[in-house]
Structure formats: structure tokens, C-alpha cells
Amino acid sequence: MADTHIAGPESLETSGNGGFAMPGMANPPLAARGSGQALSQVQPQRERASDPAWKDYQTVFTNAKAGMEGVDKARVQQIVWEMSKDSAHFKNEQRKQASVQERIERMKSQAAAITPAELAAAGRLLDARIASCEARRDLTRTWLHVDMDCFYAAVHEREQPELKRLQVAVGGMGMICTANYVARRFDVRSAMPAFIGKRLCPKLVFIKPDFAKYTAAAEVVRGALRQVITRFLSQARGGRGRAAAAEEE
Known about the structure:
By secondary structure, the protein is of the alpha+beta class.
């Protein structure tokens, strides 16, 4: 069997949402010009001056996520705002947002000053760069990514099926590692402070993390992958995960 590469989480025991990525399906296309995604909070302009301040507040805790269809976003937005507005983190985010807004205004002024000739020249340079990148693309390998959805919670639900009917979060009263789909209906999610999760979902049940169980479950998945793929990488999502060298049979 020809080598197939898989890029994914190596230490699933360090990630609430495990994931495997496999080199082996077509390489992703080049990003479109100007594409990008803001990871920090975004503060849109208030629709009306009379609108409450919380309507401007957008964070990772108010973004859409799988299992959160039908969530009352306005309610979540207001609760997160009220429980965060006096914190040092919130005030620091406000300072950062003000700095970002100033930078945006400077960039808009610079963009407005660009002449049509300068824009056309920049476009030609960019097209040449894209053509060069396309010429070097390696299409001989495929990448397949396998994600272990709400991994920590799924491991506990496998041992205790009754948890599937409850609003469950893995973690302690400090930080939530992950939440099952029942809890996600209340917008409870990973990396959310537990006190906010409890406010959103008063019946939230907390399960203490068990990393030995997660490691064992992750190895079961890796074992299955080894049966069909000669090479793969496993890497946990999140800051504590680490990349592993490719494993070969």
C-alpha cells in the first residue's frame, strides 16, 4: 500500500475535542485573496444609539458552533456581557479593540489613497506569485482529517450512557474542557469559564477529567487507523497538544 499521510491530534488526552488529520485527499486550494478570520472578539457598530451595550459584545462564547442550532443568541450575548463586563480580561479586550479600530481607520485611509495604477501593479505581482505557488503544488498526496467530536464527553458517555440525556460539561468550576450536545443547546462550550456555563445552564453536570481514559480511547482510534493507513500524524487541538512524528508500520 502506498504511503498515506494523516495529520491529526497526537495527544488526544490533552484536547477536549480530539481530531485526526490525514494527508491523503486533495490538497486544499489556495486561499482567496483577502480571506481571513478574526479570532478575537469583534465589536460591530450598534444599530441604534439607544440599543443596550451588550448588543455590541461578540466573543468566542457567542459564535455559532455545532450543536447550538436554535440557541437564543441574544440571551447568551446578554448573560456573557453581564458576567464579564467588570473583569480585568474584559477591560483589556476593550483596550485591544480600541487599538484595532484605530488601525482599521489608518488602513482605510491608506487604501483610499491608492491610485488605480498602483492597484493594477500590485494585482500583477500577486497574480505572478499565485502562478508560482500553483506551479510548485504537490498533488500526489491526499490529506484526510478525522475529528473526535466533543471527545472528553463522548468517552464518559460511552461508560455512562445515562449522561447522554443530561447537560454535561467536562472540567471543574474554573474552566470547561468540553460539553456534550445536550449542554450545547444552552450555548455551553469548551474554554468557557464554568460560572458562565452554570448561569447559561443551571442544571449543568460537571464531570472530572480523566486523562488516562482519554489516552486509552485515543489509542483505540489510532489502532483502527493503523490498519488502513501506513503513515499518520496525531495532534491534539488546543494549546497543550503536540505534533508527533509520522508513525510507520
